[in-house]
Amino acid sequence: MALLDDLTDLERRWRALAPPEASDAARAVYQRTRLWTSGNLPAVDVPYDPRREDHWAAAARIADYAAALPDAGTVIDIGPGDGWPSIPLAQAMPRARLVGVDPASRRTEVCMANASRHGVGNASFVTASADALPFADGAVDLVTAAASLEETPRPDAVFEEIARVLRPGGVLRASYQVWRLPAPEIETVALTEAVDGLLYVYARRSQTPARERRYLLLLPSDGAAAEVHRDALIASAEEPRAYGETLLRGGSPLGVPLLERLAPLALASMVVELRRWTTPWLVEALRAAGFRDVRATQHAGDLARAVARRLVASGDIDAVAGRFEVLTRALGEAAGTLPGEEMVTAIR
Ligand SMILES: C[S@@+](CC[C@H](N)C(=O)[O-])C[C@H]1O[C@@H](n2cnc3c(N)ncnc32)[C@H](O)[C@@H]1O
């Protein structure tokens, strides 16, 4: 029997106290998030610094995506957030036409503002969902995605839609989260600020089936809710974490007791259910959607970070700093040829 068929105490109380409306991640989360990348796009807002591991990772990731399309063409970036990878990729591929597709209009607005702020003329953004792409059959040469395919409500439909818009020989190059939980099932809470208030988010994740159920309570950003929220935020900072969120343990004051205090003050309550996946599931699903060659590979960012860390530790980083561009390009191009996980290449 599927783990999520049994409700936890918190889910049961949630459904009684603040009956949630079913939603999708784009509307519930990404439409509410002010800045997804906390305001900085590597390489775009901040020039690359060869001494920074994260800049090696960002540069290699862009080179990896760019290597999938050596010449000009049409590139779609699924779920660009605030413009990653679409904006730096448009800069790296000046002869290509980049189109970011995101169903959260707030995200496409932020992307457009970022592109125009940096004078990137070959990237545009449309508000649409990846399961209904506004492109003709075979009109696209390359589809990129970073941590976005797993946020879509119907991934199988998304894979079929990507296969439809790609030309024969066209490429999907995507990063994805391999679903590997620290336990068969975990519960977390996150307290965050949104554009329209404060959010209390409870997530229940199970390994088998690979799935996440995310509940969101929208609260006013002033008054009693704000006070309880602030106190809970302080308490949560002391607890253990998973995926950057507070891990809930039996009897935690951040669970049912907090919900009971916040629910009467809530402006809205939502639940989002997301399928998660392991590499074999993803490879099989892409084949079933019509891709002829599907391979999971190394993550260019991880590879570049590991190399940068060694160069810093050995004291050789200054000696190679002048070769940053050549080295990160080579790492990005090599990653796609090495077997691994967290990135997938699928050829139409
Ligand atoms: C985890 S964020 C990743 C953002 C960006 N690619 C990055 O790496 O910083 C997931 C993105 O997927 C978008 N998304 C959610 N549902 C989607 C859908 N059905 N179609 C396309 N994008 C979607 C979200 O709005 C959000 O921008």
Distance between the termini: 36 Å
Shape: globular
Biggest sheet layout = 7 strands, mixed
**Quaternary assembly:** single chain
> What's the total number of strands?
14
Give the count of helical stretches.
12
Q: Say what the CATH topology of the largest domain is.
A: Rossmann fold
For the record, the CATH class of the largest domain is Alpha Beta
Neighbour order of strands in the largest sheet: 1-12-9-8-7-11-10
Which class best fits the helix and strand makeup?
Answer: alpha/beta
Number of structural units classed as domains: 2
- Reading the helices and strands in chain order gives HEHHEHEHEEHEEEEHEEHEHEHHHE
Report the CATH superfamily of the largest domain: Vaccinia Virus protein VP39
State the share of residues found in helices, binned by percent. 25-40%
Beta-strand content bin: 15-25%
Mean of pLDDT: 94
Radius of gyration: 21 Å
* Small molecules held by this entry: S-adenosylmethionine
Which regions are unreliable across 5 or more consecutive residues at pLDDT < 50?
none
